[in-house]
Design goal:
The protein is an alpha+beta fold. It contains nine helices and ten strands.
């Protein structure tokens, strides 16, 4: 629909190569569509334009998704320079991943317009960088304050329960205190998921502190012990064969396991154990969580890792629907994958990541 437009249009793939060019731009430059499609857009600019595009325009596009009024010189088929004023906009999916970039170009009618466009482009770039720095600082402050304000009341409840526990004498008192500690643990997990989701949607993503210097098994034991405490009467079987260092963020892997096992406890058959298996083999770390019970419906499988998706569970186990989404984001941050299979025999989530 842009073939006869008064502007030149070019559509770029995420790698910067041209996917489509309209007739207007072809007429201006003298290049054929076959000569342009599949080639890097920067290859049709003069040297100064190429450097400016790669060092300023492309980084800003990745950061903010648009760039207005930058001045460049395109090189025609005859070798002449064609002064252009261009604007670019990214097309992104729901997760913020760039699918394509649409670049609109108009001819600079004289040198003054060209120079004015160049100055405006530089000002826009400076303002965009300043705005991004300001937004980044506000984002981190918001998340830090949110985490502080949400966690402080839980810390007070937990401390109070421990103090009361010193004087508890009856079975009922111990049961109430155990219920309080279980609630605190569950709420702490929900807060972690909410903060990670907020950070991801506001641009920060999952932050990792990776190290292969410490063993992973103690973290797995701690997480499973906490889940056993919060789910009395449920059986969790573990098999670990971690014979090589795993370069990971141990706390994040613990969060992933907590979310997966918590999901299995909520949705799995109550009369069958939840099975956790972790192994290092073939240069990979593999962790699976399996449970019995009804298979996941096919329609639910398609949305399982989407945020706020919740299947039907017992009212006492309802959550925000963020656990599996955050687990998948942790897997992705480790350059790994999280997959699920579900049959009448078992439902199994499998996380795989490279050891190094």
């Amino acid at each position: 629909m842009f073939d006869n437009a008064p502007c030149g249009y070019v559509t770029l793939l995420p790698n910067g190569r041209i996917a489509r060019v309209n007739r207007t731009l072809i007429g201006w430059t003298g290049h054929t569509a076959d000569q342009m499609i599949g080639k890097p857009f920067s290859g049709f600019l003069n040297m100064a334009g190429r450097i400016y595009y790669e060092t300023h325009i492309a980084p800003l596009l990745r950061m903010q998704g648009f760039f207005d009024g930058f001045a460049i010189d395109m090189v025609t088929a005859a070798g002449e320079h064609l002064q252009m004023i261009a604007s670019a906009t990214d097309g992104r999916d729901a997760g913020g991943k760039t699918l394509f970039t649409r670049v609109a170009l108009i001819k600079a009618v004289d040198r003054r317009l060209y120079e004015r466009g160049l100055l405006e482009a530089r000002d826009t770039a400076a303002m965009g960088l300043a705005r991004e720095r300001e937004n980044s600082e506000l984002r981190e402050q918001f998340i830090a304050v949110l985490g502080h304000d949400l966690r402080n009341p839980l810390a007070s409840i937990s401390a109070g329960a421990r103090i009361l526990g010193r004087d508890a004498t009856t079975e009922k008192q111990h049961q109430i205190l155990a219920m309080l500690e279980t609630t605190v643990m569950r709420m702490a997990g929900l807060i972690d998921n909410v903060l990670d989701f907020a950070r991801g949607r506001l641009g920060g993503g999952i932050v990792l502190e990776r190290s292969a210097g410490k063993p992973l098994e103690p973290m797995l034991h701690q997480v499973i012990d906490e889940l056993r405490l919060s789910s009395p009467g449920r059986q969790i079987e573990t098999v670990y064969a971690i014979d090589a260092p795993v370069n990971c963020d141990r706390s994040r892997i613990g969060q992933l396991v907590s979310n997966l096992v918590g999901n299995a406890l909520s949705h799995g058959a109550t009369n069958e154990p939840v099975r956790v298996h972790a192994v290092t083999e073939d240069g990979l770390f593999k962790l699976s969580v399996a449970n019995g019970g009804e298979p996941i419906p096919e329609a639910a499988m398609e949305k399982l890792f989407e945020p706020f998706f919740r299947a039907e569970v017992r009212a006492s186990r309802q959550g925000l629907g963020l656990g599996l989404h955050i687990a998948s984001q942790i897997a992705k941050a480790h350059e790994g994958s999280l997959n699920v299979t579900s049959t009448a025999e078992e439902t199994r989530f499998t996380f795989v990541m490279p050891l190094r």
